[in-house]
Amino acid sequence: MEWKLFADLAEIAGGREIDVAAEPGDTVDEALDALLAAHPDLRDRVLDDGEVADHINVLRNGKNVRQGGGMDATLEAGDELALFPPVSGGAGGAGAGR
Q1: How far is it, in rounded angstroms, from Cα 37 to Cα 43?
Q2: Other beta carbons less than 10 A from residue 1's beta carbon
Q3: Under a CB-based contact definition with an 8 Å cutoff, are residues 8 and 45 in contact?
Q4: 7 touches 85 (CB < 8 A)
Q5: Which of 12, 19, 26, 55 might form a disulfide with 30, Cβ 3.0–4.6 angstroms?
Q6: Cα Rg for the chain, rounded, in angstroms?
Q7: How many CB atoms lie within 10 A of CB 67?
Q8: Within a 10 A sphere around the Cβ of 71, how many other Cβ atoms?
Q9: Spatial separation of the C-alpha atoms in residues 24 and 1, rounded to whole Å
Q10: pLDDT recorded at residue 43
């Protein structure tokens, strides 16, 4: 299974696409555990008291898992997993053009 990482998460893990030892039939949570085991530096950025931090978005096939089965959702062949940290800044950010 592959995770797609964005922003500083990709920098911490050393790449935007990370293969992990997770298979169809595993849960999203098990796939995340595999990612964090392979890249422990992500743990403090992604977890808060052992749970996925509120500000981290876990996506399965483009949809936030918080609205679709949660971390216990069972993975299927071809699923795409992604982690998004909060994104800020850009031209439309607070204080732009001042």
Answers
A1: 9
A2: 21
A3: yes
A4: yes
A5: 26
A6: 14
A7: 7
A8: 17
A9: 8
A10: 96
Element (H, E) at 36: helix 28-38
Alpha carbons 58 and 60: distance in angstroms, whole number? 7
Please give the DSSP secondary-structure letter assigned to residue 45.
H
Question: Please, which pLDDT band fits residue 94 given cuts at 50, 70 and 90?
Answer: very low
Beta-ladder partners of 81:
3, 60
Please state, in angstroms and rounded to a whole number, the distance separating the CA atoms of residues 27 and 1. Answer: 11
Q: Which residues contact 4 (CB under 8 A, 6 or more apart)?
A: 16, 17, 80, 81, 82, 83
54 φ, ψ to 5°? -55, -30
Q: Tokens at residue 18, please? A: 């990370």
Q: pLDDT by residue (tens digit) across 5-59?
A: 999 999 999 999 999 999 999 999 999 999 999 999 999 999 999 999 999 999 9
Q: What is the C-alpha to C-alpha distance for residues 52 and 57, in angstroms, rounded to an integer? A: 8
pTM of the full predicted structure?
0.85
